[in-house]
Amino acid sequence: xxxxxxxxxxxxxxxxxxxxxxxxxxxxxxxxxxxxxxxxxxxxxxxxxxxxxxxxxxxxxxxxxxxxxxxxxxxxxxxxxxxxxxxxxxxxxxxxxxxxxxxxxxxxxxxxxxxxxxxxxxxxxxxxxxxxxxxxxxxxxxxxxxxxxxxxxxxxxxxxxxxxxxxxxxxxxxxxxxxxxxxxxxxxxxxxxxxxxxxxxxxxxxxxxxxxxxxxxxxxxxxxxxxxxxxxxxxxxxxxxxxxxxxxxxxxxxxxxxxxxxxxxxxxxxxxxxxxxxxxxxxxxxxxxxxxxxxxxxxxxxxxxxxxxxxxxxxxxxxxxxxxxxxxxxxxxxxxxxxxxxxxxxxxxxxxxxxxxxxxxxxxxxxxxxxxxxxxxxxxxxxxxxxxxxxxxxxxxxxxxxxxxxxxxxxxxxxxxxxxxxxxxxxxxxxxxxxxxxxxxxxxxxxxxxxxxxxx
Length: 456
Ligand SMILES: Cc1cc2nc3c(=O)[nH]c(=O)nc-3n(C[C@H](O)[C@H](O)[C@H](O)COP(=O)(O)OP(=O)(O)OC[C@H]3O[C@@H](n4cnc5c(N)ncnc54)[C@H](O)[C@@H]3O)c2cc1C
Ligand code: SF4
Ligand code: SF4
Known about the structure:
This protein is α+β, with helices and mostly antiparallel strands. It has helices at about 5-10, 20, 45-55, 65-70, 95-100, 105-115, 145-150, 165-170, 180-195, 195-200, 215-225, 305, 320-330, 340-345, 350-365, 385-410, 415-450, and strands spanning about 30, 35-40, 80, 85, 85-95, 125-130, 140-145, 175-180, 200-210, 235-240, 250-255, 260-265, 295-300, 315-320, 335. It has a domain at about 5-215 and about 280-350. It has 17 helices and 15 strands. It has an eight-stranded mixed β-sheet, with helices on both faces. A three-stranded antiparallel β-sheet has the order 10-11-12, with helices on one face. It starts with a helix and ends with a helix. The chain binds flavin-adenine dinucleotide and iron/sulfur cluster (2 copies).
């Protein structure tokens, strides 16, 4: 069995901090060598380790997404790709000005704000600009005021922990909606089951669809390439919308002493999500894409008909009929009903990385005798084409190398140390990918020739 000790030893800790909250801080969570939060289990007694293991999203001691989803939404239908669901939508805010201040269609913050304004909750636990440099540029915080909440939107592709924020609200008698990526919400659900006080306080779980999480170095690396070195970096905007461009081709904004520098994200080394640079180790062992334990999950509707609208459109999987009604009855939104296949198609790349890729990684680690968590896909290469296997392995190499290469660049004060090490790895990835394209083209050509020249 893959225990919490294995999670930490194998670099699969996502830094959520549930173990710390569960043990009243006897497990500490601090920023590690790879610039993301990690639990420190040294000197922790066995009883605390086992309690912590029960809320850790990567330990086999905890209940998985299927078990939590079944308990939370027993009456809802289930699909292996999205989990349980009551409503499936694509949508965005009608208000153009407000929409620009959100990463995608703006419905995550709209729903959270509705819950606050209707008095369903007293506060939102979410990630905002940090006022504590020790935590980095962004951190979890509880926000109680709707206007203050609205001022802190957009996606933070940035390693955080909710250890302090959850510990600080526990027992304050208020009710909260907690917002987070799928593994954080699995951990929050488990905490709510184990801890009666938090159980009575965490009233809504709002999920963000997730491809993978980035270490804090991701922001610094992109900013440095945009012209703002780490020591001058004040903040970043991971998603600057650009009129007329496809919504997936957003800019990255780096703010330094001389203002904001906006650069197309895709033009920067590490800017392509497919390369998984600065990905946290835990994400290599995760199969939850649509935040299956959340009451509602929001992502980007990456379908051609929505992608072309530069303002952004959400895909939404709802699991509470009252939230379906909230969305359907509002005249502030543009909303389409989707079917399951359309919802899954919005995350095609995500499924390749997190379901097919996960099978490869589980297989590779198991073959080396390494401990891996139990997942909902089998550890086998069966049925996966060789190009995909090579791409998955190359992506893992890129991801692992990026952390060390950037640490070396920072120590040397020279961005090129990082760029020179990463570019050849990215080129190799592209060659594998293009090789696949060339192969597909050649076999299509052969098929066409066979059709034209019978007998060949
Ligand atoms: C690490 C990460 C990976 C993602 N990967 C994908 C993906 O692969 N595919 C996809 O379709 N969508 C992905 N998303 C979701 C997407 O980026 C948008 O966040 C989502 O579509 C919501 O957009 P919105 O306009 O509705 O939100 P907004 O109106 O901009 O509101 C966002 C809200 O979320 C909060 N928030 C932002 N980041 C975090 C965070 N890290 N933890 C907790 N709260 C946060 C903000 O405080 C704000 O309240 C990812 C998000 C994150 C954070
Ligand atoms: S993943 Fe979360 S619960 Fe598990 S060890 Fe890390 S911080 Fe603790
Ligand atoms: S990919 Fe999975 S492990 Fe990584 S941050 Fe997203 S939900 Fe968590």
